[in-house]
């Protein structure tokens, strides 16, 4: 049986839930298709020990509803995964969203019917849908990057993946655990696992830059005070380039830009910086995002700061990063480097001693065999494009979105629409601010802009909207020019930001770095001018 609706929304994470609410309010018959059995998106699957957001809870939350922001009670400054999952469930119930969400409904194909100007959407379980519009709220970090290591399936112990961590408790007591991956996920997970496991071996390919951060419960009355001032907090957040005006992993980067240059700093000034601020002091210089030599000097200083924390000189040296700071997403941690001072934690530097294979009893590197009971993979995501390229999306002339992005590169217009794919809106596509900002703030702007756009199309009896190729090209040139002078495009930078973490993926920086307010201004200008750069049919 095929159901007919106005809009299909793919995904019931942060963006899908708000899209459903907004579009329903505007009077569109909207159906959400969610492959999981509950709401939450990436915050449902990534339930590994230590999972936590690195933006403050009062900013990493919906701003569109005064009732929700007043009613929900956050317990900590930066929320842990269980609290975010509970929050999204609360929102789904509070707004009565579940009645329009089909769970266990994984979208496998979407074909645009040019004559009828509708999308035909098929799910793995069978039910199909026809809709004038599709809003892909399928997430920027929702598709795990499966490691391709020889013998991976031969391991006789327990294999765990942070991106699909089991719901039931995992007992690591007295077990020999190996962790592969030292990005944001690994850096959060490693101190927690170290406290629980009998022995932990960290298999590190690229050492991380990570800044220590104090996360704490709210003091009695503190959250109430913040809530009484929510209007102002949201206003400041809205005006802030990264969509988070309070201290966050992103705002720290912006603060660094305002610091004096490292290249002209004396040795005394450099040492004072790490005396006073540790690893943060090593990186707090204004020139390191634009000058690769300054960046390399900062890496050296960073290594010195790490060596002051990590007692074993060989381990400290192995933890010193070699890629430019800033070219990967910033990471914050709770006790990462201190973890390596434990007797029951060992570091394997895969740059010196690469993994050869997973064996039934552990991991074999070039130099030895590491016996393990549990292997945890924290190996990242096929970000930004991965969710949609795993669906067979066919636009005009049966053009495949996966082929287009795979050969041309991850192009879009405004990070929201792709030429050749009419009536498809993508929440935070490549070319949108998402990667370098508070995702929730960036996403809210997208949902609102899309809602207004659909209302406009309905009011003016349009059946289709499609990005024009020239507008798309100009947008990507503009987005690319913004980062051209920065270390973000340095050739040694392999990050999910540019697809460099996925073997064979077309490499291109996928964010929009002029900040959310400037991005919003441009989007609004385009809408007010009658959706310039789009063809309305
Ligand atoms: P990631 O940053 O891409 O890190 C993946 C790690 O796995 C890297 O250290 C990578 O090494 C390593 N790796 C991948 N394949 C490997 C292999 N075959 N052998 C050895 N090592 C391998 O992924 P992530 O840590 O999951 O984080 C992704 C993003 O999710 C973050 O940047 C952030 O946006 C988000 N996130 C946020 C939070 C938070 O809010 N605090 C927490 C977790 C995640 P290379 O670097 O050498 O490729």
From TrEMBL:
EC number: 1.14.13.92
GO molecular function: phenylacetone monooxygenase activity
Principal EC category: oxidoreductase
One protein family per Pfam: NAD_binding_8
Cofactor field: FAD
Keywords: FAD, Flavoprotein, Monooxygenase, NADP, Oxidoreductase
Record flagged with keyword Repeat: no
Entry keyword annotation includes Glycoprotein: no
Taxonomy, superkingdom: Bacteria
Family assignment from sequence similarity: Belongs to the FAD-binding monooxygenase family.
Protein name (Swiss-Prot/TrEMBL): Phenylacetone monooxygenase
Organism: Mycolicibacterium vanbaalenii (Mycobacterium vanbaalenii)
């Amino acid at each position: 049986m095929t159901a007919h609706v106005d809009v299909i929304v793919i995904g019931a994470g942060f963006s899908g839930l708000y899209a459903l609410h907004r579009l329903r309010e505007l009077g569109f018959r909207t159906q959400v298709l969610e492959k999981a059995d509950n709401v939450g998106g990436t915050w449902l699957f990534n339930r590994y020990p230590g999972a936590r957001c690195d933006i403050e809870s009062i900013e990493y939350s919906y701003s569109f509803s005064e009732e929700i922001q007043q009613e929900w009670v956050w317990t900590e400054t930066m929320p842990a995964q269980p609290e975010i999952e509970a929050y999204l469930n609360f929102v789904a119930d509070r707004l009565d969203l579940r009645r329009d969400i089909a769970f266990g409904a994984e979208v496998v194909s979407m074909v645009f019917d040019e004559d009828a100007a509708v999308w035909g959407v098929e799910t793995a379980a069978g039910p199909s849908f026809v809709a004038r519009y599709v809003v892909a709220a399928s997430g920027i970090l929702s598709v795990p990057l499966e490691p391709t290591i020889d013998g991976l399936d031969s391991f006789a112990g327990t294999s765990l993946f942070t991106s699909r961590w089991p719901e039931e408790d995992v007992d690591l007591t007295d077990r020999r655990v190996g962790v592969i991956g030292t990005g944001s996920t690994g850096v959060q997970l490693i101190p927690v696992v170290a406290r629980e496991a009998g022995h932990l071996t960290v298999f590190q390919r690229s050492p991380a830059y990570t800044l220590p951060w104090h996360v704490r419960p709210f003091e009695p009355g503190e959250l109430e005070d913040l809530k009484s001032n929510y209007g102002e907090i949201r206003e400041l957040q809205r005006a802030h380039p990264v969509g988070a005006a309070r201290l966050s992993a992103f705002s720290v980067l912006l603060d660094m830009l305002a610091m004096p240059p490292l290249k002209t700093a004396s040795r005394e000034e450099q040492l004072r910086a790490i005396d006073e601020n540790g690893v943060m002091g090593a990186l707090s210089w204004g020139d390191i995002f634009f000058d690769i030599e300054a960046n390399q000097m900062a890496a050296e200083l960073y290594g010195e700061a790490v060596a002051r924390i990590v007692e074993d000189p060989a381990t400290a040296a192995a933890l010193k990063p070699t890629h430019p700071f800033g070219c990967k997403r910033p990471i914050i941690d709770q006790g990462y480097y201190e973890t390596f001072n434990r007797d029951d934690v060992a570091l394997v530097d895969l740059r010196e001693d690469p993994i050869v294979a997973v064996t039934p009893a552990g991991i074999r590197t070039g130099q030895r065999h590491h016996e393990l009971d549990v292997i945890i993979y924290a190996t990242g995501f096929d970000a930004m494009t991965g969710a949609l390229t795993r669906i067979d999306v066919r636009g005009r002339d049966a053009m495949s979105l996966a082929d287009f992005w795979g050969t041309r590169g991850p192009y879009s217009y405004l990070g929201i629409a792709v030429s050749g794919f009419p009536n498809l809106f993508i929440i935070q596509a490549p070319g949108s601010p998402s990667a370098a900002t508070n995702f929730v703030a960036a996403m809210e702007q997208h949902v609102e802009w899309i809602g207004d756009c659909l209302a406009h199309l309905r009011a003016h009896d349009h059946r289709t909207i499609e990005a024009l190729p020239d507008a798309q090209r100009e947008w990507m040139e503009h987005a690319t020019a913004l980062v051209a002078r920065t270390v973000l495009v340095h050739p040694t930078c392999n990050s999910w930001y540019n697809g460099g973490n996925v073997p064979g993926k077309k490499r291109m920086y996928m964010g929009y770095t002029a900040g959310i307010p400037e991005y919003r201004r441009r989007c609004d200008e385009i809408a007010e001018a009658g959706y310039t750069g789009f063809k309305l049919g």
